[in-house]
């Protein structure tokens, strides 16, 4: 086993506990940053470019028909193949935590749709499920089993928030273990079925699961209810006949008490177990080899790498399987670096050079690779807005995989992806929903100037309330460019002149009295 350090050139603060890695044709993609994506990479998915022990993160591209994929930490993730020997595969992502610490119950499929020397394009599709749909959770696992020519996914374990009916003021946002139910998902029909097995009594999270053919092995994990790391080794066998599936569970000896461990595959039948925790304050520095042969499992201790002093003395560590027998490890570097959220990163190679690195991986792996969230009882610890540690140009866009029209078929910008104005910033490869009514296309509104043209509501700085009001009311709208011109063409409004109130006339009685007194005065002067 080899261990060497890599230097993160830019934006290493995005790599925090709970992230996931996707391996497509030996290209590793990072998914699950801690905060919401920014304009530098609105998709939140990055291509990890590691050359000469330097780690660079380059924004990834998605196809037009992709749905929005939020950054999810601690999700369940595995690969899905049409059959056990297929070369083509896609990733399944279920559950996880959003940057606002909301839990997701959605399931996504991510696949590689095109690849050339300049650009790799991914596609993300959300799948609707029916039946016994698993509740929103994190820290669980998902695997794919193959039996009798059929395939199904299996979800087990995880944590979720306390049900609303059981919450109290003191523990309103506390988390609990999910019920130890086994969920079978048939993606062909979108049906879910749950099974309660007597051998599974306690809920588990941050465990390791390895699937081979029709069998899943579950190892380790942490139980919140008992605050223990179970040393049991469970064997789930799934039979898929023409009728209803049959699920059985067997408890095997030789388990390991560990949580948050990482599993990587080094051969068709061999896996390496790395890292994790013995207890809340004790890391597990021992490595093991797991061998699966003839429906049997064997776990033996193997020689560990020469851990650096920083790794030995750090309190927590985290990482994820990169595929092909390699693991990306991270440790906090807050005491030695200027920024408090900077980390050190290492790549651990578990496969010897004599091994064929091009060997196809036919076994499904799913392991919760990150440490338990230290703020389970305070789910709003990460709710503040996340900021990049560098500017947009720190991604080295000139050196990144950028679009070149000579590399792909002509895709003219039409419909929703037009340049609506000079300041338009809507790009098909980086757009994310801005309004709650948007799904996979940006909201647009018709400008009534001249023959009319469409503009993006977001580019016009329209609030969601105003956008809904304009869509419901039968009024004309003018974009920012033509609103002043429209005002100049309007007929000036008619000015209403104010009416002047006439003066009040003297009362008749006062006038009669004044005339009488004047007549008497005249007669008096005449006779005098």
Oligomer: single chain
The CATH C-level class name of the domain at 2-256 = Mainly Beta
Terminal CA distance: 144 Å
What name is given to the CATH topology of the domain at 2-256?
Neuraminidase
What's the total count of β strands?
Answer: 35
Q: How much is the radius of gyration in Å?
A: 34 Å
The biggest sheet amounts to: 8 strands, mixed
- The fourth-level CATH homologous superfamily of the domain at 2-256 is Kelch-type beta propeller
Task: List segments where confidence is low: pLDDT < 50 over at least 5 consecutive residues.
Answer: 335-341, 356-365, 369-414
CATH architecture of the domain at 2-256: 6 Propeller
Structural class: mainly beta
The pLDDT mean sits at 78
> Strand share of the residues?
25-35%
Tell me the helix content: under 10%
Side by side, the strands of the main sheet go 2-3-4-5-1-32-31-30
Tally of DSSP helical segments: 4
Global shape:
elongated
Keywords: Chromatin regulator, DNA recombination, Metal-binding, Nucleus, Zinc, Zinc-finger
Domain Recombination activating protein 2 PHD: 415-492
Binding site for Zn(2+): 420, 424, 447, 453, 456, 459, 479, 482
Subcellular location: Nucleus
